[in-house]
Amino acid sequence: MINYASRLLESAVNELSRLPGIGKKTALRLALHLLKKDPTVAEALGNSIIQLRNEIMFCKVCHNLSDAEICEICSSPKRNEKLVCVVEDIRDVMAIENTGQYNGLYHILGGIISPMDGIGPADLNIESLIRRIDHESISEVIMALSTTIEGDTTNFYIYKRLKDRPVKITTIARGISVGDELEYADEITLGRSILNRLPYENTLDA
Amino acid sequence: MINYASRLLESAVNELSRLPGIGKKTALRLALHLLKKDPTVAEALGNSIIQLRNEIMFCKVCHNLSDAEICEICSSPKRNEKLVCVVEDIRDVMAIENTGQYNGLYHILGGIISPMDGIGPADLNIESLIRRIDHESISEVIMALSTTIEGDTTNFYIYKRLKDRPVKITTIARGISVGDELEYADEITLGRSILNRLPYENTLDA
After folding, report:
1. Would you state the pLDDT for residue A203?
2. CB contact under 8 A, B48 and A15
3. Domain total for chain B?
4. List of residues 6+ apart from B31 with CB closer than 8 A
5. Is A86 domain-assigned?
6. Subunit contact A54:B42, Cβ cutoff 8 A
7. Which of A2, A50, A97 comes nearest B43 by C-beta?
């Protein structure tokens, strides 16, 4: 038991140390840092955390984080609304947006089918995906999930639900990462990358 | 530039990443963690940070953090008020309190003399220490600063200011850490620990 000399400090340290990856020592360092700074710094931090949790919304269409009912991507007239990319969570949206290579819409599942963690299809935003396909003019669904057993299971489940609908289902390419050496690649990835080989010209404009 | 999809999220990530040791990626992880939890978690965290900064006080006697004008240690009748331990900051108070071996009072300098960082004696709580010695019934000042050049400089400066006053000045023992092997100890520490050797019986009750 550490004696913090102040219940205010103790409470701030306890709250900070509930965050993932932050222990009591780090929490104390952060709290003492805030005490050294101007009061506006602590106020801005505290208020931004409270506002974030209380005011943020989830887009009614794609379930992305949003400041409005419909997110910026779904409401943008510049995006190609015939394409929907299915991802696990909003970090994947950020990663794909960062590439600058995609201008379609997204659909965030909010997780992945994982019987080990007790997550089934009903826990994910799959029904709303099917509703979108039935009611919007979507021509292609791009599955962009992790290449794990859970990702493959989720891919297959969604594929089975969608396969009788008039929509093309694709997955992002799996292959050797740019910069990787062949001899260190695992055999499944290497095998698939040979089976799914591309015309060389296709890679020239990337 | 990451597209956070939400200005609320972006602002929370920016504020969190101002904390020492927290970059944008960690800040995003923390923000998304808070979004998954109950709103009360974010509210408790945010409010504890704001309260900490706005309501905390510094003890008027020893400059320790406190919820009142005089801290718990200074106002406790159980502490030996003839002893004052001089430390650099409040983390040292916590460390010494944790040992359970000290029941005197403290005096927090709020730093250490460091010409390299532009910190001189006037920037530290040294005058208030001298006032305490002149007005309280203190018989011993224990210097408990780091064993660095800055710590030694500060020790020497305070020693010079106090040496004509009727107060004993001591420093915490320097020597081989418990559990350390002699062959890896540096020669100054080892040399001092021989010069400052103790009667063996003194170590038995520790």
Report:
1. 66
2. yes
3. 2
4. A49, A52, B9, B12, B13, B16
5. yes
6. yes
7. A50
> Are B94 and B141 members of one domain?
yes
- pLDDT value for B41: 93
Look at the block and give the residue holding tokens 């220490």: B129
ipTM given for this complex: 0.77
- Residue with the larger pLDDT of the pair A183 and B44: B44
What's the distance, Cα to Cα, between the start and end of chain B in Å? 57
Q: Answer whether residue A202 shows pLDDT above 90.
A: no
**CATH number of the domain that B22 lies in?**
1.10.8.420
Indicate left, alpha or beta for A168 from its phi (over 0: left) and psi (-120 to 50: alpha).
beta
Domain span at residue A99?
65-204
Any idea what the CATH number is for the domain that residue A136 is in? Answer: 3.40.1360.10
Note the pLDDT tens digit of each residue in A151-178. 989 999 999 999 899 999 988 887 877 7
* First vs last C-alpha separation in chain A: 58
**How far, in Å, CA of B87 to CA of B146, rounded?**
9
| A43 near B CB under 8 A | yes
Q: Which of B15, B35, B44 sits opposite A48 (nearest CB)?
A: B15
Mean pLDDT calculated for residue range A23-44: 92
Instruction: Quote the pTM value.
Output: 0.74
Q: Which of A18, A34, A55 is the last residue of a domain?
A: A55
The alpha carbon of residue B132 is apart from the nearest alpha carbon of chain A, in Å, by 21
> Distance between CA atoms of A81 and A70, rounded to whole angstroms?
14
Predicted local distance difference test score (pLDDT) of residue B205: 60
Q: Is A118 on the interface with B (CB under 8 A)?
A: no
* Alpha-helix runs per DSSP H in chain A: 7-16, 24-36, 39-55, 72-75, 90-99, 127-135, 149-162, 187-195, 200-204
Res A133: pLDDT: 94
What is the average pLDDT across A84-99?
90
Distance, C-alpha A112 to centroid of its chain: 11
Of A34, A46, A54, Cβ closest to residue B39: A54
Cβ atoms of B61 and B73 closer than 8 Å: no
